[in-house]
Amino acid sequence: MTFLSRLGSLSFAVTLSACSGTVSGTVSPTESPTEIRDIAPGVFSGLWQGFGTVVDCAGGPCGSYGRGGTSTPLFFRFEQDGDRVTGIFVLGSGLPQIFPQTYADVAGVVSNGELRVERSAGWPLLSDAVFQALIGGRLAGGFRIDIPDNPGSRMPLGGWVRYRLMDVKVSDRTSVGPAANFSGRWAGFYVARTCSETGSAVPSCETWVGRSRFFDITLAQIGNVVTGSERFDSIPLDGTVANDTLTLSGARTYSTAQTVAWERSSFTRDAAGRLTGTLSTRTRSLLSNGAVYSDMHMDRELVGVILVPPTQ
Question: Is residue 176 domain-resident?
């Protein structure tokens, strides 16, 4: 995937029109999160949701985004300690049927009521970002997304797109919450690190190691008890939290031929809404005579899994 197409995919189901400057889809830039908390100026901790509006561009991106007017949903989740702020940034993942394919870790310093964010290390390549937290829980300012040159693509010219924040507000009910609470929807990827297989099937472990797969679970926590489900295999999950670590397990049997199970897991989260840890899975398939066709065990590691805010 080229850098330009990757940036375009971040908009997901939002249709951008460079000529008319309109936005269509399941969300509107006039909509905003509810339950706004009245925070003091200069306080950046929390979840900020809204839209970024293109105000300028340079290079290849101008062919896709025009010179301005198009809008894309976005969110920031910040954690502030004194004048230091860390967190995550996702552009274009505010729609319920989509989970963020990627995000950027961000960090910055608050001075004179402004947060200046350092250039991000991941994708999107966020730079030249300056924000102001205003009375009433509003976030103002702007940022730039840098697109490196990609000579192998049909549109090789890199460049940048500059956004202005529009209707970005902080919401109480979707704030980051305490570090030990795992309630919510967590989405991203997991990668197979080890694999072993028995049975009569042609061995396939070598094709799985190092391969990533979508990770998408929704959890509810009451006390230290957690329940939930996994999206793609529809596995019911149960677990507990101890010492800020979540352990989950669950299984689903498809007729009598195949069982997919989470056997062991260990997850932790941070205040910015990142989930890390490991997961051991087992997939067991039987032949019609009851013989084992494949019994595969894999150890997986979470990659880029974040807490996704509900759509407002």
Answer: no
